[in-house]
Design a protein that fits this description.
five-stranded mixed sheet, 2 helices, 6-carboxy-5,6,7,8-tetrahydropterin synthase, EC 4.-.-.-
Length: about 120
Amino acid sequence: MFYITKEVTFDAAHNLTSYHGKCEKLHGHTYRLQVTIKGEPDEEGMVIDFAELKKVIKEKILDKLDHSYINDLIPQPTAEYIARWIFDELEPLVKTDKRKLFEIVLWETPTSFVRYRKE
């Protein structure tokens, strides 16, 4: 089994409306995102072309989240809920009979991240 990962970054703002602490105020992050596909190589020898994966991530995730106010898309945009939203957006676009979306890893800061898998 192979695991193919593409990593990107984006900047966005949010605030946690159902949280009591400093994150309830509007603030921003430079998020780091890893998208991992699990599968077997196709007849061309690839699980997924990195260029194809990059295009899907840009069109479905970055074009919506980069330099945005995430609360417009996700009501309580914790790192957990953002990671799940990204997974749900990408899953149907990358799935074939030989591959599937395996994992989303989303860093909110350089030392804090969430890992999401649909199990």
